[in-house]
From TrEMBL, chain A:
This is Flagellar basal body rod protein FlgB. GO terms for biological process: bacterial-type flagellum-dependent swarming motility. Pfam families: Flg_bb_rod. Residues 11-39 form the Flagellar basal body rod protein N-terminal domain. Its main location: other. Structural component of flagellum, the bacterial motility apparatus. Part of the rod structure of flagellar basal body. It is found in: Bacterial flagellum basal body. Belongs to the flagella basal body rod proteins family. The basal body constitutes a major portion of the flagellar organelle and consists of a number of rings mounted on a central rod. One of its GO terms (cellular component) is bacterial-type flagellum basal body, rod. Keywords: Bacterial flagellum, Cell projection, Cilium, Flagellum.
From TrEMBL, chain B:
GO terms for biological process: bacterial-type flagellum-dependent swarming motility. This is Flagellar basal-body rod protein FlgC. The basal body constitutes a major portion of the flagellar organelle and consists of four rings (L,P,S, and M) mounted on a central rod. The rod consists of about 26 subunits of FlgG in the distal portion, and FlgB, FlgC and FlgF are thought to build up the proximal portion of the rod with about 6 subunits each. The keyword Transmembrane helix does not apply.
Length: 130, 139
C-alpha cells in the first residue's frame, strides 16, 4: 500500500514518461525513412527503467525539509539500430520494423495508463467509502 | 510532453512527402514536354531530404528529429533527342528534345511517397489517441 501520493503510481509514472520519449524517437525514425544517411535510433526501455529503479531505490528523502532530488535522469542514451539490410544511401530505417515497434510502444503506454487509472479509481472508491 | 513533439515530427514528414509527390506530379505532367534545345528541356526533379539538427527542439534535449527538404536536384541522365523535321519545335538540324523523365520510375517513386505519407499519418493518429487517453486519466 502506497503511503505517499508520490509513490501512488509506482513505476508507471516513470514508464509513461519514457514510453512517450520512445514514441518520439520512433516517430523521428519514421519521418526520416527516406532521408539519405539517417541512422535509425532507439533506446533500451528495460535498462533505462532498471537504472531508474536502482537509483531511486538507494536514495530516499528521510526528512521533508531535506533538499529534494530529481529522480528522472535528464537524458536517455540513444543507440543506433543494427539494420536488417543495407541501403545504398546509408539510411538504416526499416519502416515496417519501426511501425511494429511504435505500435508495441503505444500498447505498452496504454497498459501503463490503465494501471494508473486503476490506481486512481481504487483510491477514489476507498476515499468515498463505497 | 514528448507526445506533443510527435505532431511536429510527423507533420514535417508529411510535408516533405508532399513535396516529393508534387515533384512526381510535375515530372509526370512534363514527361512529354518537347523543346528545341537541350538547355530549355525539362529535366526530372527529385527532392533531397535531410534531418533537422538545429532549432528549438535541440535546446530541449529532445530526441525528436524532424525532416526537411534540403533542396531539389535535376536528373543528369541524358535527354531523349528525336529526329522529327516536321515538328514545329524542331531545331535547324531537325531534332526535338524530350525530358529525361522515366515514367515507370516516377510511378514507383509516387507509391513510395504516398506510403511514407500514410505511415506518418498513422504515427500522428496513434500519438493523438494516446494523448486523448492521457487527458482522460482519472475520469
Amino acid at each position: 500500500m502506497a503511503t505517499t501520493i508520490d509513490s501512488l503510481f509506482g513505476v508507471h509514472e516513470q514508464a509513461l514518461i519514457y514510453r512517450s520519449k520512445r514514441a518520439e524517437v520512433l516517430a523521428s525514425n519514421m519521418a526520416n525513412a527516406d532521408t539519405p544517411g539517417y541512422k535509425a535510433r532507439d533506446f533500451d526501455f528495460k535498462s533505462v527503467l532498471n537504472r531508474l529503479n536502482t537509483a531511486a531505490g538507494h536514495v530516499t528523502q528521510t526528512h521533508h525539509q531535506h533538499i529534494g532530488f530529481d529522480k528522472t535522469p535528464a537524458t536517455v542514451a540513444l543507440a543506433y539500430r543494427t539494420p536488417l539490410s543495407a541501403s545504398l544511401d546509408g539510411n538504416t530505417v526499416d519502416a515496417q520494423v519501426e511501425q511494429a515497434k511504435y505500435a508495441q510502444n503505444a500498447m505498452d503506454y496504454q497498459t501503463s495508463l490503465r494501471f494508473v487509472n486503476g490506481k486512481i479509481s481504487s483510491y477514489l472508491s476507498a476515499l468515498r467509502g463505497e | 510532453m514528448s507526445l506533443y513533439n510527435i505532431f511536429d515530427v510527423a507533420g514535417s514528414g508529411m510535408s516533405v512527402q508532399t513535396t516529393r509527390l508534387n515533384l512526381v506530379a510535375s515530372n509526370m505532367a512534363n514527361a512529354e514536354t518537347v523543346s528545341s534545345s537541350t538547355g530549355e528541356t525539362y529535366r526530372a526533379r527529385q527532392p533531397i531530404f535531410a534531418e533537422v539538427l538545429d532549432g528549438a527542439m535541440a535546446n530541449q534535449q529532445s530526441a525528436a528529429k524532424k525532416v526537411r527538404v534540403l533542396g531539389v536536384v535535376e536528373s543528369q541522365s541524358p535527354l531523349r533527342s528525336e529526329y522529327a523535321p516536321q515538328h514545329p519545335m524542331a531545331n535547324q538540324d531537325g531534332y526535338i528534345f524530350k525530358p529525361n523523365v522515366n515514367v515507370v520510375e516516377e510511378m514507383a517513386n509516387m507509391m513510395s511517397a504516398s506510403q511514407s505519407y500514410k505511415n506518418n499519418v498513422e504515427v500522428l493518429n496513434t500519438a493523438k489517441q494516446l494523448l486523448q487517453q492521457t487527458l482522460k486519466i482519472g475520469q
